[in-house]
């Protein structure tokens, strides 16, 4: 028999009020945890394995710091700026999300408490900053990164999140479709990462020319956590244990697998090598591309999106990048511009083509308000289909402009306090110079032998 007793001031039914759906709440907490695991430890070990040995600690630590910093900022002001009462069309009112009365009340879906919603949305905000870090690995001053994270979260992420995801956001009211963050997370992180990489400057020339992963198996483990964690990433966004959630999960994995295979085949055809790094990039572009559409498209559309996401970002990375002076000038370490910005744009546009009205109704509860162009032609609602494409393109333009402008301003502000780029001397040494620690502490490598120990 349990010794647990309820506090004297809490009635037996108050911990599970009638408005709360226990199954929905449980799934939302599980989904949030899965998304959190994509960052900690997923991207921590992916970054730690994908960089040169001398950058393993710094790269992993940038991700770990961002995760912790975002959480504190999120509950103090970030959540209410993103999902609170409207202040202006792109921003909520400044307020904390720590009041018990507020946290225990129903979230806007009405099926689980606000505290669950705060946690679920936090892991999305955190992974966005960690994805930005991917563009800056191997040269950004860690102290500059410490200041960049809260500033960018406050003045860029919250603007886009409120505009697209808040019920009062201006793009949400226009009818943009961003099921789970193709715009808010991936397009934002890709553009912001590329912009920040421009301001921070490049790695050492020898690091740009040769930057082999120090542990591909470790990188694959991180990639696996990222892939499987996407079950919660897209499956949690209906905010209920629903058929739409199940469809979103299945479409997510279909698109990712198709994209991985497409990228792999292109590598084999043109380079005569089956690259595991290329396969991981194809997996990521597939996951990013399906994210704005996951629960509002059919399975055949998910396959088409996978083919597109495995080929178009491949082309921009392998062909366009090598011929573009601008792209060559900016040192984007993990190619987040291609894997997130290009794939995010692609996903947003394809969503505008393939969004099925009846599936949109499952998610938005507004039948015929969201019509993909393909179904516009099919159902004789061509104007509605073209309108949807127009809104998707408007969303891309908004996200790009906000992130280029705000990221540039944040970098310029941070630069007044800390240098954005490490010194060349520190970049020569890496982790040991910056943190006094190394990823692989093998005797004779970065450590002096103490003769007195014999």
TrEMBL record:
Topology relative to the membrane: Multi-pass membrane protein
Family to which this protein belongs: Belongs to the ammonia transporter channel (TC 1.A.11.2) family.
InterPro entries attached to this UniProt entry: Ammonium/urea_transptr (IPR029020), Ammonium_transpt (IPR001905), Ammonium_transpt_CS (IPR018047), NH4_transpt_AmtB-like_dom (IPR024041), RhesusRHD (IPR002229)
Keywords: Ammonia transport, Membrane, Transmembrane, Transmembrane helix, Transport
Residues that span the membrane, as ranges: 26-48, 60-80, 118-137, 144-167, 179-201, 213-233, 245-269, 276-294, 300-321, 333-355, 389-418
One Pfam short name: Ammonium_transp
Protein name per UniProt: Ammonium transporter
UniProt organism field: Daucus carota subsp. sativus
Taxonomic superkingdom: Eukaryota
Gene Ontology annotations for the cellular component aspect, listed alphabetically: plasma membrane
Ranges for domain Ammonium transporter AmtB-like: 26-440
NCBIfam families according to UniProt: amt
GO molecular function, one term: ammonium channel activity
Subcellular location as annotated: Cell membrane
């Amino acid at each position: 028999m349990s010794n647990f007793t309820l506090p004297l001031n809490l009635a037996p039914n108050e911990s599970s009020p009638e408005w709360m759906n226990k199954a929905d709440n449980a799934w939302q907490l599980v989904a949030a945890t899965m998304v959190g695991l994509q960052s900690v430890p997923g991207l921590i070990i992916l970054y730690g394995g994908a960089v040169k040995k001398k950058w393993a600690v710094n790269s992993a630590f940038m991700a770990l710091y961002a995760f912790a910093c975002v959480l504190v900022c999120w509950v103090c002001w970030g959540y209410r700026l993103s999902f609170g009462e409207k202040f202006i069309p792109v921003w909520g009112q400044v307020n904390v999300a720590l009041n018990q009365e507020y946290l225990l009340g129903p979230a806007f879906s009405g099926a689980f408490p606000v505290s669950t919603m705060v946690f679920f949305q936090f892991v999305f905000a955190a992974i966005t900053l960690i994805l930005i870090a991917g563009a800056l690995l191997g040269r950004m001053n860690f102290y500059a990164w410490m200041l960049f994270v809260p500033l960018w979260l406050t003045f860029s992420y919250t603007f886009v999140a409120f505009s697209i995801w808040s019920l009062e956001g201006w793009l949400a009211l226009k009818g943009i479709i961003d099921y789970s963050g193709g715009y808010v997370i991936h397009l934002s992180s890709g553009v912001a990462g590329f912009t920040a990489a421009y301001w921070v400057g490049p790695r050492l020339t020898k690091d740009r020319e040769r930057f082999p992963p120090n542990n591909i198996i470790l990188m694959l483990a991180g990639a696996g956590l990222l892939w499987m964690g996407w079950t919660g990433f897209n499956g949690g966004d209906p905010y209920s244990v629903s058929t739409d959630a199940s469809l979103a999960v299945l479409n997510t994995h279909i698109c990712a697998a198709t994209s991985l295979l497409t990228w792999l085949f292109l590598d084999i055809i043109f380079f005569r090598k089956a690259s595991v790094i290329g396969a991981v990039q194809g997996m990521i572009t597939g996951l990013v591309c399906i994210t704005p559409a996951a629960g509002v498209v059919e399975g055949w559309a998910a396959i088409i999106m996978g083919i597109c996401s495995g080929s178009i970002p491949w082309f921009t990375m392998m062909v366009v990048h090598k011929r573009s002076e601008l792209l060559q000038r900016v040192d984007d370490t993990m190619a987040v511009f291609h894997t997130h910005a290009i794939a995010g744009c692609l996903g947003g546009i394809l969503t505008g083509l393939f969004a099925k009205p009846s599936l949109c109704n499952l998610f938005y509860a507004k039948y015929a308000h969201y019509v993909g162009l393909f179904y516009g032609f099919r159902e004789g609602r061509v104007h509605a289909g073209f309108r949807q494409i127009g809104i998707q393109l408007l969303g891309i333009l908004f996200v790009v402009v906000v992130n280029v402008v705000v990221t540039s301003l944040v970098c310029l502000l941070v630069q007044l306090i800390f240098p954005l780029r490490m010194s060349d001397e520190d970049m020569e040494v890496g982790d040991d110079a910056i943190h006094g620690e190394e990823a692989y502490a093998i005797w004779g490598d970065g450590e002096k032998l103490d003769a007195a120990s014999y």
